[in-house]
Amino acid sequence: MNISSKIALLALAAALATGAVNAQEKVLREGQVTQQALIDALAPAAAPDGAASGADGVRTRSWKAGVRPAAAAAAGAAGAAAQPGRASILVTFVTNSADLTGDAKRALDVLAGAMKSERLAAVRFTIEGHADPRGSEELNLKLSQARAESVRGYLMGSHGLAGERVNAVGKGSSALMNPSQPASPENRRVTIVAQPS
Question: CATH number of the domain that 8 lies in?
Fold first, then answer.
């Protein structure tokens, strides 16, 4: 089996494993990352009936495009169980390393501001590192873990976030966002997940 056949097979397996939820989730590219978008995406849902509270505390039934559609859809379908907040950011690294680029650091500066906001001050987070399937499974898992740790280290070292608020987990290539194009940049992303209290 050649490499392109292996990638196609991995893409099909990932598509079946991740289902339609990932297809609805948007990746914020470094220029699209704003504090308000991140706060809205990561703030815990206030109401079990799928309604959310806006920044002014007013309950609404709408959601902002690109903020948390997958979680909003799942909450509406489930009815009772609130989904944890999620935000996927395309954080770039030096090729085949966990070294953050300057653009990535600027995006993480915005993320740190959101994490320190009043609405998120008491929330704990998991930083999920993701990789595309071009390397071995073992290599992708190690690289995604190192990248998640790099993001965690930057948030703690440069912005003073407490270590107990931020956990890092490498997901390897197990959750492709764009399984039809395995080498697509959104498959190499960092997802920030608010932990339920």
Answer: 3.30.1330.60
